[in-house]
Amino acid sequence: MKYLFAFLMLAVCSSSLAQYSLKTDSVYISGKVNNFEKYKGPAMPVMFLINDIARGDYVYIPAEIKSDGTFHTSFLKTGTEDIYIQYDNDTGTIIVSPGDHMQLTFDIPDVAQSLSVKGDGERVNNDLKEYHVAVTKQRVMLYGDDKAGRSKRLAAAEKNDGPGLHKLVLASRYTLDSAFLAGYIKQHRVTKTFISWEKTQLLYEYFTNLLRYAWLNPMYNSLSHVDLILPADYYDFTKTAAIGPEFTICSNFNGYCSEYFRYFLTSNLGMPRNVKDEIVFGLKQPVGFNRDILLCNTAYSLIKSKHLDLLAPYFEQIMASISNVGYKNNIQGAYREAENKLKNYKLPENAHINETPKTSTDSLFDKLVAKYPGKTIYLDFWATWCNPCRTEMPESKALRNKFANKDIVFVYLGVESDENTWKSVIAELDMEGENFLLNKNEYAALAEKFKVNGIPHHVLVNKKSVVVDDNAKPPGDEKLTPEIEALLAEK
Fold this sequence. Notes:
By secondary structure, the protein is an alpha/beta fold. The chain has helices at about 1-10, 110-115, 120-145, 150-160, 165-185, 190-220, 250-270, 275-285, 290-305, 310-320, 325-345, 365-370, 385-390, 395-400, 420-430, 440-450, 480-490, and strands at about 25-35, 45-50, 55-65, 70-80, 80-85, 90-95, 100-105, 115-120, 350-355, 375-380, 410-415, 435, 455-460, 465-470. The strands form three sheets. Strands 9-12-11-10-13-14 form a six-stranded mixed sheet.
């Protein structure tokens, strides 16, 4: 276990500095897909995925591939970090720094193995590629030829092991990985940047998996999080798992921050908690990196969930409290973009905004379906802030197109959403169909009627206005199509 304690001591020595410096500058990438001529038909963009610590989320940057296989892109980056380069389902990893000018080449479909980096960052990325080959061979010996063997072993442990045993499993895995890295470093001349990156990657993968267990184990076993009893000392590792700018070199650290701040807020504010308490708590934290990331993550979560109305009263104060200019500009840009969409949306031509019938809540459903006599109706309960709801809207659009000009009406019931935000998201997601915004009492009445425990939720109604399925399949389920066809065939 000596490697474990050596690496943990590295973390203990770090702290959230009141003053810190991380450079922000553009990264310029040009490249070529060597064998692109074979793939010109179904061509897709090269996608760059950045685990953005300020947003606590991934940022996706597409680069269009020209007919000769070349592509170009640029983006702002705060601090050195690994990012993903993806084409279709094939992914490679590169390390970039602010100000880098890089030239990439790779083959399709073997991005990871064929990826070559020239220009800035050439040596550290060569170290990364060669180490990946070596560590893959080591893991094949441990987990077999299955590329996902290591991940599957972890998932099984997260589901089946108790907390004490799981901590031992993760500690053993971390010690083994660290010992392999130490041996590799002794045998190869590698850059300091690579050493720092891989040590941080292993350390914060270990810490992140410890935090994730607290919600993954109940999820895998269909339990409530309160059903999992953790030992009193389970979270003691968070006292040594420092959070500081020197660790942002690795995207695993960014993932740890998201998990840690979720735990940190719950420990201090409990669950459920309101947004105001979370913002005020963040503003009271000591000046420095920790407060910057906590405030940035809180602000961006509200931007992403379209809750600008909740964020607006505090936004200027939050911006004034973030000390890193790069992080501040990042969140300001996301806020202004969301604000612009909110003010300048254009509804699709066939998106109908309806007034909810003025009636008692017990007769609301009858009044709603009475507007569409002789029609099959597919009801969709959704909200502007609900990511699963938004994610399935392209599938809903495909379903609408499949049944275009048929006797079916798609009715979207927005819930718990600001009216202007609701309309802007209808425009953004191209939600053609019948749209209603329910108030709190209206939603409560229909939720009780249809036993809605969460959204998205769907209901199928036949031509006689009779509910045939109060928990209908989602729009992307292929089994939904024949069910709708059967209802349409009814006289």
